[in-house]
């Protein structure tokens, strides 16, 4: 029985189902924070698109020939590659169906640039002096900015566009900034996790530039900014729960280091997004 639950847990984490659920939760959270009717189809779209993009990134052929440390996750991906390719194909087609069915094609200009960044993120397109090509994510220090930007757009701006709501109101700009700083802080943890892999790949990241300790301090500062911005628009239990999510995330940052295994980052670091959604959902439910 223990082996069964361990295998199920690995499947959920390594197949990117868990991170996709985090995207689902953050879209729903945006509607709750703005006290708007939840458009579940958009949350579902975020889930499916995240599942597709993250598996596309993890299953790129060249990644199986990289001179990097072999992890438990990489071995799992290698063994389950055929079924994952099938599942991500279904997710990709389902995403297109939801997008077309709900008539959001007039926002395709915005969504297109997010898709382009997501695909080019791990695609070898940038020429180097040695005649080789490197992916967008290998541009020095750019990885964390791209991830936080795309996630912020998908989970804040797309819900606003879907409801034809102004993006430039003070409340919505503050929400976007809050989401960006929170996600940026969490993304830095994965730079810490990948410190050795990025060193072998000669990719300059924040830990490689300023060290793991100062990267953690930067992450804590970003969480502090998130907590400060929250005071401008929230109150009561909603404010308390958002501050609580920042405090718990700060503890995860504090105890992180490059020797932690994948489970620490996949469950705790990514899990901070899902935890924040649950805390917001709780506050919104009690307020009704």
Question: Which features characterize this protein?
Answer:
288 residues; mainly alpha; two-stranded antiparallel ribbon; membrane; transmembrane helix; transmembrane
Task: Explain what this protein looks like in three dimensions.
It is a single chain. This protein has 288 residues and is mostly helical. It has a domain of 199 residues. The protein is built from 13 helices and 2 strands. It has a two-stranded antiparallel sheet. A hairpin with a 5-residue loop joins strand 1 and strand 2. The longest helix has 26 residues. The mean pLDDT is 89. Keywords: Membrane, Transmembrane, Transmembrane helix. It comes from Adhaeribacter arboris. This is Prenyltransferase.
Short synopsis of the structure:
The chain is mainly alpha-helical.
- List low-confidence stretches: none
SSE run? HHHHHHEEHHHHHHH
SSE-based structural type:
mainly alpha
Distance between the termini: 40 Å
Give the averaged pLDDT, no decimals. Answer: 89
Oligomeric composition of the shown chains: single chain
Beta strand count: 2
Helical segment count: 13
In angstroms, what is the radius of gyration?
19 Å
Helical content band: over 70%
| Main sheet makeup | 2 strands, antiparallel
Strands of the widest sheet, in order across it, are: 1-2
> Judging from the principal axes of the Cα atoms, what is the shape?
globular
Amount of beta strand: under 5%
């Amino acid at each position: 029985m223990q082996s069964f639950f361990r295998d199920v847990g690995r499947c959920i984490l390594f197949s990117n189902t868990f991170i996709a659920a985090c995207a689902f939760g953050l879209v729903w959270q945006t509607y709750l924070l703005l006290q708007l009717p939840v458009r579940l189809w958009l949350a579902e779209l975020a889930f499916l698109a995240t599942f597709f993009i993250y598996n596309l990134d993890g299953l790129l052929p060249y990644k199986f020939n990289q001179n990097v440390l072999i992890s438990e996750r990489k071995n799992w991906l290698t063994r389950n590659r055929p079924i994952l390719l099938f599942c991500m194909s279904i997710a990709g087609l389902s995403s297109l169906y939801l997008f077309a069915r709900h008539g959001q094609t007039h926002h395709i200009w915005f969504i297109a640039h997010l898709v382009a960044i997501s695909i080019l993120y791990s695609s070898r397109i940038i020429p180097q002096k040695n005649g080789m090509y490197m992916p967008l994510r290998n541009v020095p220090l750019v990885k964390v900015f791209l991830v936080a930007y795309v996630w912020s757009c998908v989970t804040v701006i797309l819900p606003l566009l879907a409801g034809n709501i102004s993006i430039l109101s003070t409340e919505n700009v503050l929400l976007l900034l809050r989401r960006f700083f929170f996600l940026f802080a969490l993304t830095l943890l994965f730079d810490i996790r990948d410190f050795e892999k990025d060193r072998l790949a000669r990719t300059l990241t924040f830990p490689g530039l300023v060290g793991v300790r100062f990267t953690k301090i930067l992450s804590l500062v970003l969480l502090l900014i998130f907590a400060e911005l929250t005071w401008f628009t929230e109150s009561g239990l909603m404010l308390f729960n958002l501050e609580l999510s920042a405090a718990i995330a700060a503890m995860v940052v504090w105890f992180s280091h490059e020797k932690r295994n994948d489970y620490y980052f996949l469950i705790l670091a990514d899990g901070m997004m899902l935890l924040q959604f649950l805390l917001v959902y709780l506050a919104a439910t009690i307020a009704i």
